[in-house]
Amino acid sequence: MLKELLKYLGIIFMIIGVAILGYYIFNNLINNGLLILAGALMVGGVAVHVIMTRILE
């Protein structure tokens, strides 16, 4: 079960990044910090997903 969770850890990061981006858009915020955080989580999530998938296979 732990291996499956680690395999999908990157996707969880991407979903969190999309949720932060949605929060930013729907609340009409001016702060760019949330945009940077959401972008970093989405890009990092892709990287983590690819790396974990290669390691765990």
What's the SSE blueprint?
Elements: H1 2-7, H2 9-26, H3 33-56
Helix pairs in contact: 2-3
Report on this model:
- The protein has 57 residues and is mainly α.
- It has one domain.
- The protein contains 3 helices and no strands.
- Helix 2 packs antiparallel against helix 3 (33-56).
- The mean pLDDT is 92.
**Total DSSP helices:** 3
Helix-strand sequence: HHH
Shape: elongated
- Share of residues in helices: over 70%
Rounded radius of gyration (Å): 13 Å
Average pLDDT across residues?
92
Q: CA-to-CA gap between the ends?
A: 14 Å
Q: Which structural class fits the helix and strand makeup?
A: mainly alpha
Beta content: under 5%
Number of domains: 1
Spell out the key features of this protein.
mainly alpha
Q: Briefly, what is this?
A:
By secondary structure, the protein is an all-alpha fold. Helices cover 84% and strands 0% of the residues.
